[in-house]
Amino acid sequence: MSAPSAPDQTRLEFDSNRLMIDLCGELDANLVRVEAGTGAEVHRSGNVILLLGEDEARQHAETTLRALYGRLQANKTVEAGDVEAAIRMPTEIFEEGHEQPVAALGKIEIRTRKKTVEPRSPAQADYVNALLENDLVFGLGPAGTGKTYLAVAVAVAHFLEGRVDKIILSRPAVEAGERLGFLPGDMKEKVDPYMQPLYDALNDFLPARQVTKMIEEKQIEIAPLAFMRGRTLSHAFVILDEAQNATTMQMRMFLTRLGEGSSMAINGDTSQIDLPKGVLSGLVEAERVLRGVDGIGFTRFTAKDVIRHPMVAKIVRAYEKANRE
């Protein structure tokens, strides 16, 4: 609910004192984040929030706060990541009488056993939509933008809904010039360090016991890219992570594994290629060759979509600037 405001300020008044506490966060930490992210001054007194600053900044802050309050009204939590997401996605339009942004009423949700996942940037929303609408999707962009996390979440949701019979997760076993042969242990022990990010994502969405049981029953397969040769991957959700380290031959081999009733997500960052000098990345070639092919989705992430520590976004931007120069 809003009360009349002076021309250079916006006054917001919310009905619930209980929800107001969660909206503001401990020591008003959420309001501090809104201030930093929108450029508006945010002042709180009881259940009233006063916004000061330029029109655009105040409108951005108002939209953000209303979106967060709408989450609380829907019995959802408001954590630091939710605040950052609301700041990134300030495009919702309000209808009279609606406390929650109209666009947020149909917000994408990926339901898994342990949590419900929502996109936290416009690019993440485009990516999830692409995964839901296409059999083959490429997610391209820097680390920390949620490409792998969202793909695994959609894969788990597809499995739980009975849309696929198994989840297949793969990565090229190439990291910073190292080779498997130099690592100690048997093949599983050699491979597991490369696959750990995929295990981490799975454990975020499924109970540990269920993950272990699904791996034992081959409902979840985690294997290096080289192990995919000769297979037809049917009725599966297939994810290739760190695809920038696939050679052109490996990429073509992997793409042609797609079988009946399957979906495939291919993720990578072409600014972090660890292939030997002179070896062309299969991800770079695939983007050039396949962009525009009907039924194949492409989502490009940027530093604006980084959802890790804010410093990661600054690092990505600094490197992007250095590369341009």
Q: What can be said about this structure in brief?
A:
This protein is 41% helix and 16% strand.
Mean model confidence by pLDDT: 83
Strand content: 15-25%
Terminal CA distance reads 48 Å
Q: Could you give a short account of the major beta sheet?
A: 6 strands, parallel
DSSP helix fraction: 40-55%
Q: Nearest-angstrom radius of gyration? A: 22 Å
Spatially, the strands of the biggest sheet line up as 9-8-10-11-7-12
Report the count of strand segments: 12
Shape: globular
Please give the oligomerization state of what you see: single chain
Low-confidence stretches: 91-106
User: Which H/E pattern describes the elements?
Assistant: EEHHEEHHEEHEHEHHEEHEHEH
SS content category: alpha/beta
Helical segment count: 11
Explain this structure.
- It is a single chain.
- The protein is α/β, with parallel strands linked by helices and 325 residues long.
- 41% of the residues lie in helices and 16% in strands.
- It contains eleven helices and twelve strands.
- The chain has a six-stranded parallel beta sheet, with helices on both faces.
- A hairpin with a 2-residue loop joins strand 3 and strand 4.
- The longest helix has 19 residues.
- About 5% of the residues have low confidence.
Descriptive tags:
325 residues; alpha/beta; six-stranded parallel beta sheet; 11 helices
Question: How are the secondary structure elements laid out?
Answer:
Elements: E1 2-3, E2 9-13, H1 17-24, H2 29-38, E3 41-45, E4 48-52, H3 55-73, H4 80-88, E5 110-111, E6 116-117, H5 122-133, E7 136-140, H6 147-160, E8 166-171, H7 187-205, H8 208-216, E9 220-224, E10 236-240, H9 248-255, E11 263-268, H10 282-290, E12 296-300, H11 310-324
Parallel strand pairs: 7-11, 7-12, 8-9, 8-10, 10-11
Antiparallel strand pairs: 1-2, 2-4, 3-4, 5-6
